[in-house]
Design brief:
Strand order of the largest sheet: 4-7-9-8-11
Pfam families: PriCT_1
Protein name: Primase C-terminal 1 domain-containing protein
Largest sheet: 5 strands, antiparallel
Oligomer: single chain
Organism: Cytobacillus purgationiresistens
Number of domains: 3
Strand content: 5-15%
Number of strands: 14
């Protein structure tokens, strides 16, 4: 192990070094020392260190592997790259490289050595899986939501966050790699792929994670100019597997308890007079409690979902509606609301919100028709004595996500008004606010004149970021 640290120790002593870490140190940590320390030929290390290292390797029962690297994305698209066997090579060439495979392969070669067409980076040739990585293909993302999502889901802290030209890449470094072999038809590989899939699906509810990318392929190589966050305590593999199992069980239970309304398709809300009246309105503005642009788009989207309209069809129609508004929402905000409407949380458009929108933004001729439906699937709430407090909390958080913003993080009013807004009894609201760790409550005044302000922790943090009161989170 002493010999393994030589490259890192030497770079630490480099007077030009201006960071707490060096790229080769990060890569050595990510790959679990699964490459040779020195080049087999042409090493610049002193002879005595090379001899000592070769002696130590003869006693090592584990064979070293390789990683594949490429100088740019264009070369990578053409299958061009280099097979790297040592950390010394990575250290020398890191500034010339853009991509690499942080998961180690048994070996590699070239289809065409002269043109550097690499061969061997196939899933069956993987030696060990060292990291679970994923892409975020947009810069328009709240990075704090990524870390908050890990915390709320029970996932460990991310080990590495890289910035890419189009977005970000994040990694969990496993404390125990998945060692790949063909026993039981590559069972360990299938388990790792399943874990990766579950992590990406879970985090996609917080940020725009690419759930369709190849889990163990090429990623951006870590360098000082693209590393935003590095944490050198690896994630527990056993705990991640336990989490993955629980995540699948929870999703399975959720799907088994979904009971769709037999009459869900009996009435097409998108053909109603109120829907047509509302979708023709173009002067809907922001800032109106319960009747803003956000609420209008959410209500129309829920009507599409409840009527069985495909997401693509709803997107096209409501995108046109949003474009016709005098003050349209941003594309990101529009897509977030549409995603929420199609998440399965809501059964149909809620009468009180439809009537509020019609009264404020139309001539008032159209009236609400259809079934009251703004509640979650599973067993209808009117058939239950009382809803679970966890469901009530989810309702409030969903509402706050849609109706608050970093500029206006709090929703305020009397407890009675807030309870009516959330569709629950005052006693239920009090209990939810008392139990919840995700909702912040502030009270101003006493008695009938008291005003209660509520906000989600995530939105409140976004406000603090906006005001510049939270700094240095990632660095």
């Amino acid at each position: 192990m002493e010999a393994e640290k030589t490259i890192v120790q030497e770079t630490r002593n480099n007077p030009k070094r201006n960071s707490k870490w060096m790229p080769v140190e990060v890569m050595q940590f990510m790959t679990h020392n699964s490459l040779s320390l020195y080049k087999k030929k042409g090493s610049h290390a002193p002879l005595d260190k090379l001899v000592a290292y070769e002696k130590s390797e003869k006693l090592n029962p584990y064979k070293k592997g390789v990683v594949f690297v490429s100088p740019c994305k264009a070369d990578l698209a053409e299958g061009k790259g280099i097979v790297v066997t040592s950390y010394e090579t990575l250290h020398e060439k890191v500034l010339e490289l853009s991509h690499w495979t942080p998961n180690t392969y048994r070996g590699g070669t070239y289809y065409n050595f002269k043109k550097r067409h690499i061969k061997g980076h196939t899933r069956e040739n993987l030696k060990q899986i060292n990291v679970i990585g994923f892409d975020i293909d947009t810069k328009n993302v709240d990075l704090y939501a990524l870390y908050l999502g890990c915390e709320e889901l029970g996932l460990p802290r991310l080990n590495l966050l890289l910035e890419t030209p189009r977005g970000f890449q994040a990694f969990f470094v496993l404390d125990t790699p998945f060692y790949i072999n063909n026993n039981k038809e590559y069972k360990s590989l299938r388990v790792a792929e399943r874990l990766s899939d579950n992590i990406r699906k879970a985090l996609s509810k917080y940020v725009s994670v690419d759930t369709g990318c190849v889990p163990f392929g090429f990623y951006r190589i870590p360098r000082e100019d693209n590393t935003l966050d590095f944490y050198d305590e690896p994630a527990s593999t056993s705990q991640l597997l336990k989490w993955s199992k629980q995540y699948e069980e929870q999703n399975k239970r959720a799907s088994l308890h979904v009971i769709y309304d037999k009459n869900a398709g009996a009435f097409d809300q998108t053909s109603s007079d109120w829907y047509h009246a509302l979708i023709r309105a173009t002067d809907i503005q922001k800032g109106h409690h319960g009747a803003s642009r956000n609420n209008a788009i959410l209500t129309l989207a829920i009507a599409n979902y409840a009527s069985g309209k495909p997401l693509e069809e709803a997107y096209d129609e409501l995108d046109q509606f949003n474009s016709n508004l005098e003050q349209p929402l941003s594309k990101n905000e529009f897509e977030r609301i549409l995603k929420s409407a199609y998440s399965g949380k809501y059964k149909g458009a809620k009468r009180t919100y439809v009537e509020g929108l019609l009264e404020l933004w139309t001539d008032g001729q159209a009236q609400f028709s259809g079934r009251e439906g703004w509640y979650k699937f599973k067993k209808p709430r009117e058939e239950r004595v009382r809803s679970h407090y966890e469901e009530r909390e989810e309702d409030i958080l969903a509402y706050l996500e849609t109706h608050t913003s970093p500029e206006m993080a709090f929703l305020e009013g009397s407890l009675k008004m807030l309870a009516e807004t959330f569709g629950m009894a005052v006693s239920s609201l009090k209990e939810v606010l008392k139990r919840s760790k995700k909702i912040i409550k502030r009270s101003i005044g006493q008695g009938r004149a008291a005003v209660t302000k509520v906000a989600s922790r995530s939105m409140l943090f976004k406000r603090l970021l906006l005001l510049g009161l939270v700094t240095g989170f990632l660095l």
